[in-house]
Each structure stands twice: as C-alpha cells, then as structure tokens.
Amino acid sequence: GIFACLAAFLVLVLLLSALVGTAVFSVAKNANAIDDVRAGNSVIAGLRSIRSELESITRDNAYWDDAARVAYIEPSQEWMEETWGVTTRDYPLYDTAAVVDFGGKTIMAWRKGDALSVTAEQLFPLTFKDMAFRLRHQMANGTKTPVITEFTASPGGMIVVSAAPIAPTTTVEGFDPGRVAILVFSKFIGDE
Hints:
Blueprint: H1 2-62, H2 65-73, H3 77-85, E1 96-100, E2 106-111, E3 114-115, H4 120-123, H5 128-140, E4 148-154, E5 157-165, E6 182-190
Antiparallel strand pairs: 1-2, 1-6, 2-3, 4-5, 5-6
C-alpha cells in the first residue's frame, strides 16, 4: 500500500530532480561554450582591428611626398627620426619604426622612443627579408601602394609588423619604383 506509493513517489521525485539537474548542467555547459566562442570572436576582432590600423598608418606614412623627398631627393635621417622614431615612445598604433634603403642598409631604427643600433633583419628576423622582397617585387611590377602586414613571433612575444615601400603620391623625376626604401612599423601584442 502506502509504502509502495511513497516509494514510487520518492523514485519519481528523484528522477525529476536528476532530470532537472541534468538540464541545468547542460544549460550551464552550453552557456560556457557560448561565452568561450564570444571571447574568441572578440580576440579575433581585436587583432583584426590592430592589424588594420597599423596597415593604414603604414600606408599613410609610406605613400607621402615628404617621406619620398627625404628618402630619395634630400636625404634627412633627422626628419625620419623626428617623424617616425621619436613617435614610437607613446604612439598607440606602433612602438617600433625602421627605414631600410634599397641596398638593405637600415637608415634608422627606433623602439619605444629610443634609437637602436640594430638592423631591420635583427628587429624582425622572421619576416623582414621576405616582406622587403615581396614589396620590392610588387613595386617593380606596377603595384601602386602595396603594404604587407603580418603577425609574427619576436624574442619578447607576439608582434604585428607592417611594411611598405616609401613612394611619392605624385610623379617625381628620378623616382625608380624598382629601387625603393622600405618603411616598417610594428606593435608589440603580448607574450606568446
């Protein structure tokens, strides 16, 4: 009688409790998975934004008549350092700047407001040589404003590097698109 009904009722309550517990656990697990996806998407969006902003500022600075003038016609390392080097101290879009002439000589290199005595290949050992080759090839073949931007590892952690040939926006007598200097900006992203 009564004990059988009570036992059946307790079994039913336990089954319902287990069902509700499983449903709550499943909802929590799915909510965590959704949060993980959203967090991952936010990181990806942030990295895309950093890459896009750096690429844009690199293009703006490389394709600039004043920059082309001091790179090819009236060389001025002082102008480059005042314009790009000192800016690395507190500029939000890049913390490293370098200019490399056609022959591969680093004209200037700055990081976080300090002049460096290193080459661009030493600053960006995994990327610079390949980026410079591709940019010079693109310019020699008629690409008007190539910019290459990549994420890469560095001794201090992850960086984003953007490079473009320095070129005038107007026709300049004597400018040879096959013999361009390269402007490089980079931004430290974080530990690997």
